[in-house]
Structure formats: C-alpha cells, structure tokens
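Hi team,

As requested, here is the filled-out complex form for the fe (ii) ion run. I kept the field names the same as last time so the parser does not choke. Let me know if anything looks off before we queue the next batch.

— J.
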Amino acid sequence: MTIHATKPSLYNQTVGEIAAMRPGAAAIFRKLNINFCCHGDVTLDIAAKDQGLDVSFVEQALCALDVEDLPASTKLSSGELTEYIQSRYHETHRREIPELIMLSRKVEAVHKDHPDAPAGVALLLRAIEGELEVHMKKEELILFPAMRWTDTTLDAPISQMRHDHNDQGVFLERLKELTDNFNLPKEACRSWQALYIGLVKLTNDLVEHIHLENNVLFPRFETGRYKGISGAGL
Ligand SMILES: [Fe+2]
Ligand SMILES: [Fe+2]
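And here is what came back:
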C-alpha cells in the first residue's frame, strides 16, 4: 500500500506567527537557534533551511506541543499588554543592564590578560543601554499611549520600532561573539560566572520582549499583517 504524505501545515507559516500562536514554540525556536523575534516574518520552511535543519523534524516538534490554549499574552488587551511589557521588560532592562555594566568592567579589568576575557562587553552594554533607553521612551511616551486610545493602524511608528529591534538583534549577536556564546573557561571566577548568567538572562529577556512586540502587539495595528491576532481588544 502506498502511503501519501499529507502536506505539512506549518511550512508556510511565519516563525513569528507560530511563536505567537503556539505555547512552547518560542522555547523550541530558541533551542534550535531560529530567530523568531527580529526575523519573525520568515516562513518555517526557510528559517529551518537557514539553520541547516530538516523542516519536517522542526514541524514535528511544534505539532507535538499542546495548542489547546493560546499563549496568555495573546489574550491580553493591547492596553494590558503594553503595561505588562513596560513592567516586566522595560523596568527589568533599566534595573539589570547598569549592574551588568559594572560587573563586566570588573571582570574585564581583573582578567585582562586571559585569552578568553570578554573584552569589549562593557562598552557594548553601554551602547545597548543607550539605544534601548531611547527606544523604550518612544514606546512609552508615544506608541503605547496611542495603542491604548486608537483603533486605527500605526504603520509608520511601528516600522521605526521594528527597525530599532533589528539593531537590538545585531547587538545581541555581537554579545554572543564577544563571550564565545557565553561559554565560561573552567577557571572562571564567581564574578565571571555571574556576568554570563546575567548576560544570558538579558538576552532571553530581550528576545521575549521583542517577540511580544513584533509578533503579538504590533500586528494588531499594522495594515495587512497576521490575521487572527488582531482579534484581541484594544
Ligand atoms: Fe518595548
Ligand atoms: Fe521595542
């Protein structure tokens, strides 16, 4: 008997859409190094190929997830979601990045002769902090209030925010390069360990933060983007 394979249903969906609609998908994408936040508009088929992965393997993993219920973030109104993003992510970045800058300065100074020392991390974090502060202010003072009160599209300011997010994604890639993907040498001291733990947390937080904006919040206010998410109330 010949068994005909049915056409996989997720191949042509974008990874941003899948991450927004399937609880647990973001964790799978993170493990497989699939960029679902800054490059969320790429189809699963192409994103998997770009990583040298068998798309049917990725699809199987995604289909095994329990999708009975939507991720909690998709059920929040836009007002609730913007407030959540500000308190959970904006405030966390503002609190944690200065601490990481101080810690990285210390580790860079103490281990300046070590071949694996994370030289340049403090400077990079300063750049991330500066760019992020300007970006978050624009969201808090202009874009988010507009989202709470308007029922029209906001294509132009959202396009600028997406552009900023791409820049933040480049910063995160640079952070990985400078730290050898957060690999600690065996002899790393407590401060060095604490620094990399903090940098991994910052990376995960920023990826989740950008994902929530790019793939869940912004499409509600963009012309012709992901259908199905825009149903959430303002
Ligand atoms: Fe934000
Ligand atoms: Fe943002």
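Two things worth flagging: The pocket of fe (ii) ion (ligand 2) is lined by residues 135, 139, 161, 165, 213 (CB under 6 Å). The chain has two domains: 15-69, 73-221.

Thanks,
J.
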